[in-house]
Amino acid sequence: MSIDKRIVDDLVANDVSFVTTVPCKQLAGVIEEVDARPEIFHIPSNKEDEGMGLCAGAWMGGKRPAIIMQNTAIGVTINTLATLIQYYRMPLPMIISYRGELREPVACQVEMAVHTKALLNQMNIPTYHFHKESDAAELDAILKYTFMCNKPVAILTDASFWGGYGDQ
Amino acid sequence: MIRSEILREIAPILRDQLIVCNIGLPSQELHIIDDQPSNFYMLGTMGLSSSIGLGLALAQDKTVISIDGDGSVLTNLGTLPTIANNVANNFILLIIDNGSYGSTGDQPTYAGKLTKLEAVATACGCENVVTCQDVDTGKVLQAAIDSKQMTIIVSKCDSGNIKLPVITKDPVVIRDRFMTAVAS
Ligand SMILES: Cc1ncc(C[n+]2csc(CCOP(=O)(O)OP(=O)(O)O)c2C)c(N)n1
Ligand SMILES: [Mg+2]
Fold first, then answer.
1. Which of A87, A147, B97, B160 has the fewest other C-beta atoms within 10 Å?
2. Going from the N-terminus, what domains does chain B have, and what CATH number goes with each?
3. DSSP 8-class letter at B165
4. What is the pLDDT of residues A35-80, one digit of tens each?
5. Residue A81 belongs to a domain
6. Would you say the ipTM is above 0.90?
7. In total, how many domains does chain A have?
8. Is residue A167 part of a domain?
């Protein structure tokens, strides 16, 4: 079974039914899978802080949300994470493509990669780093943990996890 | 009319609906005028009232009214295409357009100059966009609720504020009682 399908299976198994996304090349397959599932309402957002607002509303409306985004968006979501998701104590699984790590072809992506874990750490956001495909076995437990503690939780998925960049 | 006068006038309509209220003075005003568990007061996160309201409307069936400001819509303009393309007929976005950043001292916004938010909303693909004058807000809002069609209302009013205390309620209390009202 493809890793994209396994990730989305875990979302569905954990009753996640409202997913917002902003694309990343690494996330193309998982976004396509989210879009194809009848159990999930997929609502693309134009900016990740907007997406977190949508997720906050959906959660208060009784649905379990998730956001799928690139790590370069950590900077634009700090205020929303602090003053909405954390301040009102809301759960939010964040499946994040961790660009700028080993096998990265685009130099500029490294510039946010070097800040990614530091920012998440500064925000006291529980952070998991998927480096090998087998690391995804923890996703189910991470989702349960997120909705148990009502916190934003980051799942960083790097290029090695996604199998590199092919012919790039 | 200024924003607080509009809110005072429409409070009897708002009290029966789920309200997501914009940061700063709008929330402080609504809190003083008619505090209800069905009001979600934003204490920060300028710009996201419409996004929170849309997410809530898409997740359940009750009518949701997001009370927003012109400055806050401008800071999150990406919300309008998302609203247009994800129609929730139980969602109303009420933009109180006083042409200024009221909560921070009425500095002018571009909406008070050349930019017409109603035209932006229409260009983004929103179907029911109604522009009204402050005095007609209640009538237009009630019609939007009755229509059961997603509606964007741009209510044009004067800049100006009244002095009010900040909201000291705990955010988790605000959120918890709101969720109870949503689920009831
Ligand atoms: C990111 C961010 N920038 C600036 C502010 C300061 N701020 C709080 S409310 C506000 C004005 C909002 O204006 P508008 O949405 O038009 O609402 P009004 O008060 O005029 O009703 C501003 C600039 C903030 N809270 N957050
Ligand atoms: Mg204003």
1. B160
2. 3-183 (3.40.50.970)
3. P
4. 999 999 999 999 999 999 999 999 999 999 999 999 999 999 999 9
5. yes
6. yes
7. 1
8. no
